[in-house]
Amino acid sequence: MNSTKRNKLEAKGWKLGDAQDFLALSDEEMAFIEMKLALSRELKARRLHKHLSQAGFARRINSSQSRVAKMEAGDASVSMDLLIRSLLALGASRKELARFIEQSKRRVA
Amino acid sequence: MNSTKRNKLEAKGWKLGDAQDFLALSDEEMAFIEMKLALSRELKARRLHKHLSQAGFARRINSSQSRVAKMEAGDASVSMDLLIRSLLALGASRKELARFIEQSKRRVA
DNA sequence: TGACTATATGTCATATCTGACATATAGTCT
DNA sequence: AGACTATATGTCAGATATGACATATAGTCA
């Protein structure tokens, strides 16, 4: 991972391990973050596809516009639980969720 | 869902919606719980396969034996985040995680 | 029997997540 | 310009999850 990428993650509030050389990051840590970011991207795509505003969607899932924005921005304060429950609420199937997770190895930018 | 199944879930601390007839449960709610239970089963299977005790595994992931027991028991106090991070720590790949999620539609008992 | 190991279960202080709110930014329309 | 809509971002009180601990249960071995 280059430092640009790292900076982007840290700007979103991610606390990235205590790796000494400041660049290394465990594969597991990275995989987990990438999964969340993938779910976050899919969430936004699905919401837009349904022509829902963040506020409208928030109402549906008893959340708030600001939290939906954070979910879609890949904010570190958002749990996997919330991302998955939100995707399910948008009609995502297990199969689709599985695909998002399997294919999550993507660029962060 | 029959009431036996529901009782088993409620015994583990799951708060199952407010469905009026006490049997109906949203597909999304059910899918989410089943995913967690599937991950929980896989976690136990992988740990045993590696001949690790709950205490030994807990040490590895900076957790505690009791929390590992709860993870494997499908306790409602365990988050998806923790389950997934734990599986990654046991060496599960994205592909495997995806499979567990896709195939999570299984019996609860 | 007792010692040891593994797992289960309940509790709790603290850490983390969440919805809500305020406010900022940006685009569109009249 | 001002009004309106959508999204972003920071903060925070309350809710939920967490590791740690105590303790229970059950199996094995000598």
Describe this structure in words.
- The structure is a homodimer of 109-residue chains.
- By secondary structure, chain A is an all-alpha fold.
- Chain A has six helices and no strands.
- Chain A has helices at residues 3-11, 27-49, 54-60, 65-73, 80-89, 94-102.
- In chain A, helix 2 runs parallel beside helix 5 (80-89) and helix 2 crosses helix 6 (94-102).
- Chain A starts with a helix and ends in a 7-residue tail after the last helix.
- At the A-B interface, helix 2, helix 5 and helix 6 of A face helix 2, helix 5 and helix 6 of B.
- Chain A binds a DNA duplex (30 and 30 nucleotides) through helix 3 and helix 4.
Question: Secondary-structure blueprint of this entry?
Answer:
The structure is a homodimer of 109-residue chains.
Chain A: H1 3-11, H2 27-49, H3 54-60, H4 65-73, H5 80-89, H6 94-102
The structure holds a DNA duplex (30 and 30 nucleotides).
In short:
The structure is a homodimer of 109-residue chains. Chain A has 109 residues and is mostly helical. Chain A contains six helices and no strands.
Determine the oligomeric state from the structure.
homodimer
CATH topology annotation of the domain at 32-102 in chain A: 434 Repressor (Amino-terminal Domain)
Largest interface: A-B, 21 and 21 residues
Largest sheet of chain A: none
C-alpha Rg of chain A (nearest Å): 14 Å
Q: What's the mean pLDDT score of chain A?
A: 88
Roughly what fraction of the amino acids of chain A lie in strands? under 5%
- What is the count of DSSP helices of chain A, taking H or I runs of 4+ residues? 6
User: How many strand units of chain A?
Assistant: 0
Instruction: State the helicity of chain A in percent bands.
Output: 55-70%
